[in-house]
Write a structure and sequence with these properties.
The protein is an all-beta fold and 800 residues long. The chain is 3% helix and 60% strand. β5 and β6 form a beta hairpin.
């Protein structure tokens, strides 16, 4: 720690000593469509900076030329003759490289923090059941997701709770009670409002918060033109309005999701009544050249009602098939409401100093209620002789009853001040934040199984309940965080970022320090390397505190991860086009972990246990325009992650009946998915280029799993590999190659019709298991399958 702090002080001192009284150049960088460009490298002599989310830059230096460079655009060098001027205003337009990428590329958001940049327009042609922005993340290195209905994702061995999401520097929180994908509706990110997005799978800077795995940084920025976007399809509707004006802008978005037809393709047959809505608005006003403010608000509602009728699942092998048939009575009704509001003020007293004040309120109200009775018959199906019917051997008969009355309210208030300062060769950033969390939770759920002596042995007295959770929790916590970081350009091609992040949690009463260091070396315009190391500490929010029975663990502590990452980015010409190859090697040393199980989307922690572990792997991706103006992406991720739970053991008996103590040691973590592969390929008809095809392929290898209410060392079963192919077709009637453009272009910027086939090969993917026992007390894992093949149609119109 001492060595790191000394390094930080040396870097800060070096930045100050290099400051010179030179010419200040500032301005805005845009593309040919007059869209602001973030992350543009600006070099002026020995000084280097990057444009921010508004496309603005300011830099001091002295040289005859100033250069602007961004991957995917032609580099521009501008000669300067400042004369006696001490400040120059220089706005630049970059032209797109004819062989450049148009979607997911790697570029620096600042001098050394490389993140994957995501083109939000790519999602429009991406065939996705959920329709959420997060669907495109499944194409990125290190990301895995085995549920097409959900926007949740895991990154490099972490779970769903370990990912940060920001919109305009405001942290976004997800509902906590959602337990399966069919309950989840629209994610908070509105794809039509997104101007830019960046993603980091690890090794991110101190400016970002305290989570173990990843950060998604989304920006809603000022549009260039007034635009109305309408979208209508079989599974959803949306409307977006973008209005810029001289001193600000207004963004409005409304979405509705009606995926009833998708849910009806699942195993459980019945009446599905999902209602998903999302409304968002952002207003920004420039009071003066130095002062601006913005108001940002949103409301997200998910109502899921199910009246189940029956379920039939057949599984096993060709020679031995098992079949479970259940007749249901009762219903499930869930409601998840999220309201959000934020006020941001920004003040720039000088070209080199900018201050930002962010205030936000996030409120979640969640209700989960169900009373469902199921009468089941469990048979073994043996193939009969030719011409004879199959033989059914009964393995169990009985009934079950599931009950829940769960109510959770979570309110998160926060206020943060950030400062940005450019001084010579260095850029500085600092922030301090106070957050207050108020959470109340009422849990009451149980499960009863009665199979006339088959599942529960004959016994006197009442039947025993299983999966009993009964608790009433209320916690109020304060979280204080602060960070400081400095990026210094040691040369035009070598940058270092050093930062430190500190926090105090009033619940755990912990003071935490997280030093982080990264370096980027641009060997040439086509090849760069990045190295990063840092400490990432995650204080428990709420779910990590809660045991299986609903009680809280007051002794819980922050989980911790130490990242070591090496990444490379190489652009080259191949197959007649410009390609980009990205590779990453990483190792994460995990400490003070809280073990958990994953049941569909529900994470259930062993809050009173602690473990240590690791995650190691490699990510590779290749992207490029294999077909002109259509980007394709291929990705391969390799991973191994395991944990050793403290003081865990069990006893086994040997042949003589003597007991022997066994310490399990390192166990596969629930996210130990060794191989992940994805491909997104686009093509178009040679003679009719307005007709395009969009193919999405996903593969994720098997995941470890075990029975509920069991210890982690018993997770020796496997969820089979996830395999899915989605195919979409589109036609743009305003495409320049279409004869109708001359008529439609007067009314529309774009008019596109999509036809999509989800789960093209109708593969039964398993998301979780229903565990039952037969008459011999043998336990079986009955697979819960995801969605089957489905057709979707939609129209997207962008009105002038």
């Amino acid at each position: 720690m001492k060595v790191f702090l000394i390094s930080v002080l040396v870097l800060f001192g070096a930045g100050i000593s290099m400051a010179q009284s030179t010419v200040m150049v500032k301005g805005i960088v845009k593309n040919e469509q007059q869209e602001v460009l973030e992350g543009v490298t600006v070099s002026f002599g020995k000084s280097v900076t990057h444009t921010d989310s508004t496309g603005s830059y300011s830099i001091k230096g002295y040289d005859k030329n100033i250069s602007f460079r961004l991957l995917g655009y032609s580099e521009k060098n501008i000669p300067l003759n400042p004369g006696n001027k001490t400040e120059i205003q220089l706005n630049i337009t970059l032209n797109r490289d004819s062989h450049s990428l148009d979607a997911v590329t790697v570029t620096g958001k600042n001098q050394s923090d490389i993140t994957l940049r995501i083109d939000p327009k790519l999602l429009q042609s991406f065939p996705s059941v959920s329709g959420n922005f997060e669907a495109i993340l499944k194409m990125l290195p290190g990301v895995s997701s085995n549920n097409e209905l959900s926007s949740q994702y895991a990154v490099r061995g972490g779970n769903f709770d370990e990912n940060l999401i920001y919109i305009n520097d405001i942290e976004i929180y997800r509902p906590l009670l959602v337990r399966n994908g069919q309950q989840e509706g629209l994610s908070f990110i509105n794809p039509e409002l997104v101007s830019s997005a960046g993603f980091s799978a690890g090794g991110f800077d101190a400016r970002y918060g305290d989570k173990l795995s990843s950060v998604l940084d989304v920006r809603y920025n000022k549009p260039d033109l007034t635009e109305v976007i309408l979208s209508a399809g079989l599974i959803g509707l949306s409307g977006t309005v973008k209005i810029p004006h001289k001193s600000g802008f207004l963004l409005l978005g409304a979405r509705n999701k009606t995926n009833e037809s998708i849910l009806k393709s699942q195993q459980v047959k019945g009446s599905y009544q999902p209602e998903f809505y999302d409304f968002q608005g952002l207003y920004q006003q420039d009071v003066s050249k130095k002062l601006s403010f913005s108001l940002f608000g949103g409301y997200n509602l998910a109502v899921f009602k199910l009246v189940p009728k029956e379920r039939e699942t057949t599984f096993g092998t060709i020679d031995r098939q098992m079949r479970l048939h259940i007749d249901f009575e009762g219903q499930e009704l869930d409601k998840y409401k999220s309201a959000f509001g934020a006020f941001t003020a920004q003040y720039q007293p000088s070209p080199s100093l900018r201050l930002k004040w962010i205030n936000s309120l996030f409120s979640n109200s969640e209700k989960e209620t169900f009373d469902i009775e199921g009468n089941y018959i469990f048979d073994e199906v043996q193939p009969g002789l030719p011409g004879a019917p199959d033989v059914h051997v009964n393995r169990g008969i009985g009934s079950s009853f599931e009950h829940a009355r769960n109510h959770l309210n979570a309110d998160i208030y926060s206020s943060e001040v950030r400062a940005y300062w450019q001084q010579g060769f260095s850029s500085y950033e600092a922030g301090i934040k106070a957050q207050y969390n108020r959470i109340s939770d009422q849990l009451n759920e149980f499960r009863l199984i009665d199979s006339a002596g088959y599942v529960l042995p004959n016994q006197d007295g009442p039947l025993e309940l299983t999966d009993v959770v009964s608790a009433e929790n209320s916690i109020n916590t304060n979280l204080y965080t602060a960070y400081l970081q400095n990026t210094i350009s040691l040369s035009p091609r070598f940058d270092i970022t050093a930062g430190i992040r500190g926090s105090y949690d009033s619940y755990t009463k912990e003071w935490l320090l997280s030093p982080r260091l990264s370096a980027r070396h641009r060997i040439n315009n086509d090849f760069s390397m990045r190295y990063a190391a840092g400490v990432y500490s995650q204080p428990p929010f709420y779910r990590e505190l809660r045991n299986y029975n609903g009680s809280l663990n007051p002794q819980s502590r922050a989980q911790r991860s130490l990242h070591f990452i090496a990444e490379s980015d190489y652009s080259f010409t191949g197959l007649g086009t410009k390609l980009t190859f990205n590779s990453s090697l990483y190792y994460k040393k995990l400490d003070r972990l809280i073990p958990y199980k994953v049941e569909n989307l529900r994470i259930r922690y062993f809050a009173d246990q602690q473990s240590k572990g690791y995650a190691a792997g490699a990510d590779f991706s290749l992207s490029g325009e294999f077909v002109e103006n259509l980007t394709s992406i291929f990705r391969l991720s390799l991973l191994k992650t395991a944990e050793d739970i403290r003081n865990d053991y069990y006893f086994v008996k040997d042949a003589s009946g003597a007991e022997r103590k066994v310490e399990p040691g390192y166990l596969k973590r629930p996210t130990d998915q060794r191989i992940n592969f994805s491909a997104f390929f686009q093509d178009k008809l040679l003679k009719s280029p307005t007709y395009k095809a969009h193919l999405n392929i996903l593969y994720g290898s098997a995941l470890p799993v075990g029975p509920p209410q069991s210890e982690r060392w018993q997770d020796k079963f496997k969820i089979p590999a996830y395999k899915r192919v989605d195919l979409g077709f589109s036609k743009d009637f305003t495409d320049k190659n279409d004869g109708g453009k001359s008529r439609l272009s007067a009314y529309f910027d774009a008019l596109i019709v999509y036809a999509e086939i989800f789960n093209l090969f109708n593969i039964n993917n398993t998301v979780s298991y229903l565990w039952i026992k037969d008459v011999s007390n043998n336990q079986y894992a009955v697979p819960d399958y995801l969605t089957s093949r489905q057709l979707n149609l939609k129209i997207v119109a962008k009105i002038k």
